[in-house]
Automatic annotation (TrEMBL):
<keyword id="KW-1133">Transmembrane helix</keyword>
<feature type="transmembrane region" description="Helical">
    <location>
        <begin position="252"/>
        <end position="274"/>
    </location>
</feature>
<feature type="domain" description="G-protein coupled receptors family 1 profile">
    <location>
        <begin position="50"/>
        <end position="310"/>
    </location>
</feature>
<comment type="function">
    <text>G-protein-coupled receptor of lysophosphatidylserine (LysoPS) that plays different roles in immune response. Acts a damage-sensing receptor that triggers tissue repair upon recognition of dying neutrophils. Mechanistically, apoptotic neutrophils release lysophosphatydilserine that are recognized by type 3 innate lymphoid cells (ILC3s) via GPR34, which activates downstream PI3K-AKT and RAS-ERK signaling pathways leading to STAT3 activation and IL-22 production. Plays an important role in microglial function, controlling morphology and phagocytosis.</text>
</comment>
<feature type="transmembrane region" description="Helical">
    <location>
        <begin position="112"/>
        <end position="133"/>
    </location>
</feature>
<dbReference type="InterPro" id="IPR048057">
    <property type="entry name" value="GPR34_7tmA"/>
</dbReference>
<keyword id="KW-0325">Glycoprotein</keyword>
<dbReference type="InterPro" id="IPR017452">
    <property type="entry name" value="GPCR_Rhodpsn_7TM"/>
</dbReference>
<feature type="transmembrane region" description="Helical">
    <location>
        <begin position="294"/>
        <end position="313"/>
    </location>
</feature>
<comment type="similarity">
    <text>Belongs to the G-protein coupled receptor 1 family.</text>
</comment>
<keyword id="KW-0472">Membrane</keyword>
<dbReference type="GO" id="GO:0005886">
    <property type="term" value="C:plasma membrane"/>
</dbReference>
<keyword id="KW-1003">Cell membrane</keyword>
<keyword id="KW-1015">Disulfide bond</keyword>
<dbReference type="InterPro" id="IPR000276">
    <property type="entry name" value="GPCR_Rhodpsn"/>
</dbReference>
<keyword id="KW-0807">Transducer</keyword>
<feature type="transmembrane region" description="Helical">
    <location>
        <begin position="37"/>
        <end position="59"/>
    </location>
</feature>
């Protein structure tokens, strides 16, 4: 018995290799470190400035209280939390992909980044659904007004509260529980999850959530654009008929940005997760890691583009922002052009009073949507109560995103 030697080193090495498979496969790509640090720095700076400005406009200058405003305030908050995670990535890449803040902080930063990305995605989908139901209407409700629970901003407040609560409930266990594959000094890198399959399947569920939101967004804005083009063809003699086609094209700005920023990442995500659950070569792991970094960069870019989208699509947001910046930098602001265009619009509207009545555009919505009702109906897409009595044919200019 004294001559028996147990191969304890074999079992120890096998266990270590199982828990930390990436140590035998270095994933660092020196050529990507500097570009990633620079690009994440730019996204952080522009995203921080743009979303702080957007939040300021929505809270203090754009006072109309409706559901879209509530959703957009929450989108700006989610984007701000997301960009606040980017300095950690910049520090990590600039220091040679070395993480010195511990594995717990790595999980906090990583999970907050993904949580707010999906909160922003869901909110953009809810905005498109809100606009679709209020503009197009649903069966069983007063035509064009949408169901009663959609009127006002209460439902959006409740929905945002539930969304944030569910997100926090899901992300806290992700931060608190260990996976057994953490590496000292490493973060934001490819990990094998054969022994942490729950996290991998959760990631696949979030991919499914994205594609569901993406379909809802495409259908909603597609139907809104179709209604605008139909109105342009059916009533070409109305005062703003020439603007219908241009407004319909603007309806596709949000789906276009959504596609550019999020579709590449989620199209690749299924392949990425599948590789984490199977035995793949070291070269494949490196390829997954590099590709995921490039796709994730596009997703982070959306936090910069959201404020640009608000500014492009909403005349009221654009005017409020320019006026505020003019006052901030003591620039001379000329309202004459606005007054002139308003006067011309009113004259054109009065000249067509025999065929249509013009409803003034509310200030508190985003993105111009113009829709025409040939039947007696009063549209109210801002959430105000719809009148019970029948209305004449109305041309309604409605802001949306």
């Amino acid at each position: 018995m004294s001559n028996t030697v147990w191969p304890t080193n074999h079992f120890t090495n096998h266990t270590a290799a199982t828990q930390m498979p990436n140590r035998s496969c270095p994933l660092e790509d020196e050529s990507l470190r500097l570009p990633l640090a620079v690009l994440y720095s730019l996204i952080f700076l522009f995203g921080l400035a743009g979303n702080l400005l957007a939040l300021w406009v929505f809270l203090f200058l754009h006072s109309r209280r409706n559901s879209v405003r509530v959703f957009l305030i929450n989108v700006a908050v989610a984007d701000l939390v997301l960009v606040s995670c980017l300095p950690f990535r910049v520090l990590y890449h600039s220091r040679g992909n070395v993480w010195s803040l511990g594995p717990r902080m790595c999980k906090v930063v990583g999970n907050l980044f993904y949580m707010n990305m999906y909160v922003s995605i869901t909110l953009l989908g809810l905005i498109s659904l809100d606009r679709y139901l209020k503009i197009i209407g649903v069966r069983g409700s007063q035509r064009g007004c949408g169901p009663s629970w959609l009127r006002g901003s209460r439902w959006s407040l409740v929905t945002c509260g539930l969304l944030w609560s569910c997100s926090l409930v899901m992300v806290v266990p992700m931060i608190a529980l260990t996976e057994g594959n953490e590496e000292d000094g490493k973060c934001f890198h490819y990990k094998q999850r054969k022994h942490a399959q729950g996290k991998a399947f959760f990631n696949l569920v979030m991919v499914g959530v994205f594609w569901t939101v993406f379909v809802v967004l495409l259908v909603s804005y597609g139907q809104i654009a179709r209604r605008l083009l139909q109105a342009s063809r059916d009533k070409p003699d109305l005062p703003n008929a020439s603007r219908y086609a241009r407004t319909a094209k603007k309806s596709f700005v949000v789906p276009l940005l959504f596609t550019i920023c999020f579709v590449p990442y989620h199209a690749f995500r299924g392949v990425y997760v599948a590789s984490q659950l199977s035995d793949v070569s070291c070269e494949t792991q490196r390829l997954m890691d590099r590709t995921n970094e490039a796709m994730l960069l596009l997703s982070a870019l959306n936090s910069c583009l959201d404020p640009v989208m608000y500014f492009m699509l909403s005349g009221s947001v654009r005017k409020a922002t320019i006026r505020a910046l003019s006052q901030l930098f003591h620039l001379h602001h000329e309202p004459a052009s606005t007054n002139s265009s308003t006067t011309e619009f009113r004259r054109a509207s009065l000249s067509h009073a025999s065929t249509a009545a013009v409803l003034a555009t509310p200030r508190g919505s985003l993105g111009l949507i113009t829709t025409l009702r040939p039947k007696p109906a009063c549209l109210n897409t801002d959430g105000d109560p719809c009148p019970r009595t029948a209305c004449p044919i109305k041309l309604i200019e409605q802001h949306h995103v």
